[in-house]
Each structure stands twice: as C-alpha cells, then as structure tokens.
Amino acid sequence: MESCSSFFLPRMVGYSNATYLLATGKRFPADSKVLDGLFAELLPKPEDVFPRAVELAGDILQNVSPMAIHLNRQLIWRNGGSAEAAHLTDSPLLADMFGGNDHAAFKAAFFKKQLPNFQDSLTRNAPRIYPWWEEVSIKSPPQGVSSNLSKL
To answer: What family name appears in the similarity comment (predicted)?
Structure first.
C-alpha cells in the first residue's frame, strides 16, 4: 500500500472489496464489480476519454458556481470524520451560500431558462467559517517534538 491508499481505497470501494483486492493480488478489468465506486464513468475506447472530459468540464463550468465546486471539494477532502462534524461544517456553509450572489444568479437564470453568471469568489465573499480546517504541519521535526528523540 502506498500514496495513502490504505485510507482512500476502502472509502472508495468499501472495506470488503478493498480487502479482497489486496488479499488476492489479482488484476481486474475496470468494469469489475469489485471496483464499483472507483470510477464515475467507463468509456468503451481510450480515445473517447479526452472528448468526454472536455464535455464534462463544459457542463460543470456552465452549471456550477466555481466557489461551490471549491467548497464541495474541501468538504469532501477536509471533513470532520463523522456525520455530526460534517453537519456542523456544511450547515453554516450552506446558509452562507444560499445568501450569496451565486445562488441568486442561479435562481434567476433557472427561471429565465438561461445560463447563470456566477460572480462569488473566496477573496471577495467567502463563507464566514472558511477555512474550517487547521493545516497540518509537515515541518521536520514536527512542531512540538524534540529533534533528539527517536521516532520509534
């Protein structure tokens, strides 16, 4: 296991499938049931990947606020580790977003059957609790740890 796969793999495919993948050492095709949850889409030919990626990027840019995309990614990757912690973070974020310019732009565009013109940005009007996480120190030695102590 490398690159934090012991953390991410079970969360993506489930603990049983992750254990099965690692214990058997087998190779599996991308559409194998044991890899369910790993891929959002499977395309029939490799040359279909780039055009689909461009199409998907266009859909995202037209339909989703850049700030909402960023905040949703941060909620996924920097969650509190429990349903309660997630609720305490995402509820105030959602309330701020509902009161923001992008939400108003989306509602107006929706009813006019037009594309929204998103304007919110983290530099101008970030949600009150942003950022909600504490950065982890990667200094060597870690802060608060004496450099003359063994790591074992």
So the answer is: Belongs to the enoyl-CoA hydratase/isomerase family.
d(CA 30, CA 48): 15
Residue pair 122/67 in contact by the 8 Å Cβ criterion: yes
Q: What is the 3-state secondary structure (H, E, C) of 37-98?
A: CCCCCCCCCHHHHHHHHHHHHHHHHHHCCHHHHHHHHHHHHCCCCCHHHHHHHHHHHHHHHH
| Domain locations in the chain as residue ranges | 66-152
For 69, residues 6+ apart whose C-beta sits below 8 A from its C-beta are 60
Q: Is the pTM of this model over 0.90?
A: no
List C-alpha distances in Å: 128 to 17, 23, 125. 39, 46, 9
